[in-house]
Design brief:
The complex is a heterodimer of chains A (739) and B (112).
Chain A (H helix, E strand, L loop, with lengths): L3 E4 L4 E2 L4 E8 L4 E11 L10 E4 L8 E2 L10 E5 L10 E9 L7 E6 L4 E6 L4 E8 L2 E11 L6 E8 L4 E8 L10 E6 L10 E4 L2 E2 L5 E2 L4 E10 L4 H9 L7 E6 L8 E4 L7 E4 L3 E4 L20 E4 L13 E4 L7 E8 L6 E8 L10 E5 L1 H6 L5 H4 L3 H5 L4 E2 L1 H8 L19 E3 L25 H14 L3 E5 H7 L9 E3 L6 E2 L1 H12 L3 E4 L7 E2 L1 E2 L6 E3 L37 H4 L1 E12 L1 E3 L19 E2 L10 E8 L10 E6 L7 E2 L22 E6 L5 E4 L5 H5 L7 H14 L5
Parallel strand pairs in A: 2-27, 28-31, 28-32, 32-34, 33-35, 34-45
Antiparallel strand pairs in A: 1-3, 3-25, 4-5, 4-6, 4-26, 7-16, 7-22, 8-13, 8-19, 9-10, 9-16, 10-11, 11-12, 13-14, 14-15, 17-18, 19-20, 19-24, 20-21, 21-22, 23-24, 26-27, 30-37, 36-37, 38-41, 38-43, 39-40, 39-42, 42-44, 44-45
Chain B lengths: L13 H6 L7 H11 L7 E7 L3 E6 L9 E8 L2 H17 L5 H7 L4
Antiparallel strand pairs in B: 1-2, 2-3
């Protein structure tokens, strides 16, 4: 179990930058910190050997240990100006679409903390309106019928202080014969209350410790407050926008500023608010009728916010220390290594350090696929999804970080999970400890052998550079997002990670433009550039993914919810968006399986003189029948060349894997007509294609189309033909002579 | 919901599995494994790493996030393939009530 967890507010630095570190350490009085250069993170005794290099740097410490907590659950908050209050009778109402009615008490609109009014659902899923005084409930009106799941209701609470009466109305927007899900109730409170109007929360209320609690799961739309007690039909019409009431105090519209985390009040007091922990926005509201799929075309159809009790954007931990990176630090992958007297307790806060602004660039730049690291951040595929073992073809192994995640779900979800109400997770953030972006950790689906995944698997590539004495710099996906192709200026060769699956438009443009300018790309991975993600211009450290219509996906976003909140762009596969990875990289995702990998076999194209440099010193036809990931070089997730999808017509497919186990199955986007032939021993589309082509500007692209490639490079301490081929390509690509 | 359940004739695949728990399998064995390796998360067998790449305990997943993974008392492995064989026997017993542990003695140890 992990006793130390930590994170920094950034994942990309330059030499001389300040690094802030936020730590939670339990079961110890103090901890120490040291700067390390990460060289090779695989601890498999059959591998090349773990290596991290100490870096002289005065970080300070030891530091006092303390626990920092994480509170999940999204909510909205409005803070009123001083002295704001409402006198007389008041009505609080909202449209709701609950997704987990009846599992727990859930707050919809909460006015005040110690003393106030709370509109919500009780533990049986019935609409309730409560009065609270001094933190105690002094009265409630609750209907007798539970709300149905995923159905729209108007819920309307009225408080009449002059008579100490509460009233609740629960109005289904669609009625079914024989289904009793409407209701109303009245109650009298036991003592008078002085409503605190300083704060209004949506989807949560203040708990006894002052923190938000009683999180709601489901959509809320058009919450509002008015004076008096209009009839329920008038209130419902107002909520639906059909007819507006006049005595409005606040009238919130979640269809404003959908791309960010604030929302507007159209009422007379401008009680605008902010959303916390990134509930789903740009989701269909009650008015959505299929006439548009784009929320920016008709935002009034997207006025709902979908809250979850397990949403997390920013853990908001306090800094434990800040230190400055050495000015002369060489670009690379680094980590703050946190340790204590307990040798089993350690944690690595991993980040990239790019070259100093005026430094001479190395010929090679390794792009850390940090978007993909974040997409998989704290992922629970082996814990939540039983079928993961079928895909792995072997028993799943539980590392100590997996056990920690299982017992600490508050560390948040990845883009592979569903929320507690079953809806897909649209957002993943690094503003929290991400325990699987560390060396030494194992994965769930890293293939037989080292069984490592994403960041740790990529250290096989770093280890190769170091083994061969190849000079390299490091950039992150966030640098490509921020600077576009200019981030790649002056680099001769761009090397990818083993699984750069998630790509933003700006990142993909940067790859394309770099290639078109004569750059050389080595795509040493599989299933790259598969899903579109978006960053948010105002919310750092978080990515969004909407898995629309097709692709290998554990959830789908719901019809109508296909366009990203952050940018308004269509979500889904790049292939569906018209930019299949074959266009830039020559190959694209074709199949996956996580048991055994397969070797490549040279094709006739390997004899083409254009490809001679690739195989210099490699005599045999079979390539990579060894490795630390499934025992061969083509495996896990594999890509094929496909001229129909955009592989350039001059591309050479110099080697291909020929057969895979029947764990390997086709991607759904290829599987138009299901027949029982789409498995690894039967379909010739299930293969890795080692592909090379020159660009019209003198550049070139070399792609392996396999996650397992890097793990074969690391076999026999990097002394093998897979590493040899990679080195041949790096050295030729580093040569400025045009192709 | 129709899901394949193990049949008497599936016993022909036991020896095939014991010889090679991970890798290429006949379609019949693959179907058996798909049944065994799927199913409910609650109580699902997993290997809990005691010493990376060298020693594992047998664990079972809980039903819900936040609950701990439990260990099957006294069951440890120093060979991943032997763990596969042992869990195969356990799952066969869970699914059919039949004890096939003699298969391990017949094929398993010699091929570890």
């Amino acid at each position: 179990m992990l006793k130390i967890t930590a994170y920094s507010s950034r994942i990309s630095y330059r030499p001389g930058d300040e690094v802030d570190v936020k730590v939670s350490a339990v079961g110890m009085k103090s901890f120490s910190a040291a700067l390390k250069r990460i060289v090779q993170g695989d601890i498999n005794p059959d591998g090349p050997g773990y290596r991290e290099d100490a870096v002289p740097c005065d970080i300070g410490g030891p530091f006092t240990a303390r626990e920092q907590k994480i509170l999940t659950g999204s909510y909205g908050r409005v803070q009123t100006s001083a002295g704001f209050a409402v006198a007389g009778s008041v009505t609080v109402a909202a449209l709701i679409w609950p997704t987990l009615p009846g599992v727990a008490r859930q707050a919809i609109v909460s006015v005040g903390s110690e003393s106030g009014l709370r509109l919500g659902l009780d533990e049986k899923g019935r609409a309730t309106f409560e009065a609270v005084s001094g933190g105690r409930r002094v009265g409630h009106a609750t209907t007798t019928a539970a709300c149905r799941m995923k159905a729209w209701y108007a819920i309307i609470g009225t408080f009449r202080p002059e008579t100490s009466e509460l009233e609740i109305e629960q109005v289904p927007l669609q009625r079914f014969r024989g289904i009793e899900d409407s209701g109303c109730a009245k109650a009298t409170i036991s003592e008078s209350i002085d409503v605190d109007w300083s704060e209004i929360l949506f989807a949560a209320e203040r708990g006894s410790d002052g923190a938000p609690a009683s999180f709601y799961n489901g959509k809320i739309e058009a919450p509002f407050i008015c004076s008096g007690q209009p009839g329920p039909d008038d209130v419902t019409d107002h909520l639906k926008g059909a007819k507006k009431l006049e005595a409005v105090i606040a009238d919130w519209d979640f269809s404003h500023d959908i791309a960010h985390d604030t929302f507007a009040d159209c009422g007379p007091h401008s009680l605008c608010g902010k959303l916390f922990n990134l509930p789903h926005r740009a989701v269909s509201g009650f008015a959505w009728d299929g006439s548009t799929y784009r929320w920016d075309e008709r935002p009034e159809h997207y006025g709902a916010v979908h809250f979850h009790d397990d949403d997390l954007y920013d853990a908001m931990w306090e800094n434990d220390f800040t230190f400055r990176l050495p000015e002369g630090l060489k670009s690379g992958v680094y980590a703050v290594h946190l340790t204590s007297d307990d040798e089993a307790s350690e944690y690595y806060v991993v980040f990239g350090v790019k070259a100093a602004k005026n430094a001479k660039k190395s010929p090679v730049v390794f792009v850390m696929p940090t978007a993909s690291y974040i997409a998989y951040a704290n992922h629970r595929l082996g814990l939540d999804v039983s079928e993961t073992e079928i895909g792995a073809g072997q028993l799943l192994q539980i590392d100590k970080h997996h056990s920690f995640l299982q017992e600490n779900p508050q560390y948040g979800l990845s883009l592979y999970e569903v929320h507690s109400d079953g809806s897909g997770v649209f957002y993943s953030s690094r503003l929290r400890p991400v325990v699987d972006i560390q060396p030494k950790v194992q994965g769930f689906i890293g293939g037989l052998g080292s069984n490592i995944w994403q960041f740790n698997a990529d250290t096989h590539i770093l280890g190769f550079f170091e083994d061969r004495g190849l000079d390299y710099d490091v950039l992150t996906d966030e640098d490509l997002e921020a600077d576009g192709v200019e981030a790649l200026a002056d680099y001769q060769v761009l090397v990818t990670g083993s699984h750069p699956e998630y790509t933003s438009t700006r990142m993909l443009d940067a790859y394309r433009d770099y290639s078109e300018r004569g750059g050389r790309i080595m795509y040493l991975g599989g299933n790259g550039f598969y899903w579109r993600i978006t960053y948010n211009s105002k919310l750092p450290g978080v990515i969004e993914c909407r898995r629309s219509e097709s692709g290998i996906r554990g959830w789908e976003p719901g019809t109508g919810n296909y366009y990203h909140q952050f940018t308004g762009e269509l979500g889904g596969l790049w292939r569906r968006i018209g930019r299949a990875p074959q266009q830039v990289f020559g190959v694209g995702m074709t199949a996956q399986g996580f048991d055994l990998s397969s070797p490549y076999v040279k094709t006739d194209h390997a004899k083409d003189p254009r490809a001679a440099f690739i195989f210099e010193g490699v005599a045999g036809d079979v390539i990579g029948d060894f490795g630390l990931n499934g025992g061969a070089a083509a495996g896990n997730e594999i890509d094929r060349a496909d001229f129909a999808l955009g592989t350039p017509p001059n591309a050479l497919i110099v080697a291909s894997s020929r057969v895979h186990t029947d764990i390997y199955l086709m991607t759904p986007e290829d599987l138009l007509d299901p027949t029982p032939t789409w498995s690894g021993t039967q379909s010739d589309l299930i293969r890795s294609d080692m592909t090379f082509f020159e660009t019209s500007t003198g550049g070139a692209v070399f792609s392996t189309g396999s996650i397992a490639w890097a793990a074969s490079m690391a076999w026999n301490k990097y002394d093998n033909e897979v590493a040899r081929i990679t080195e041949n390509v790096v050295r030729r690509f580093s040569n400025p002579a045009k192709f | 919901m129709s899901r394949y359940s193990l049949q008497e004739e599936d016993k022909q695949y036991i020896d095939e599995f014991m010889k090679k728990p991970i890798g290429y399998h006949s379609p019949g064995l693959q179907r058996v494994l798909n049944v065994m390796r799927g199913g409910d998360v609650n109580g699902k067998y997993v290997l809990v790493i005691l010493e990376p790449y060298r020693r594992w305990a047998l664990g079972r997943l809980p039903a819900r996030r936040g609950e701990p993974i439990s260990l099957v008392e006294g069951v440890e492995y120093t060979c991943q393939l032997q763990a596969e064989r042992d869990v195969f026997i356990r799952r066969w017993r869970d699914l059919t009530g039949e004890d096939i542990s003699d298969a391990l003695n017949r094929e398993g140890s010699a091929n570890a």
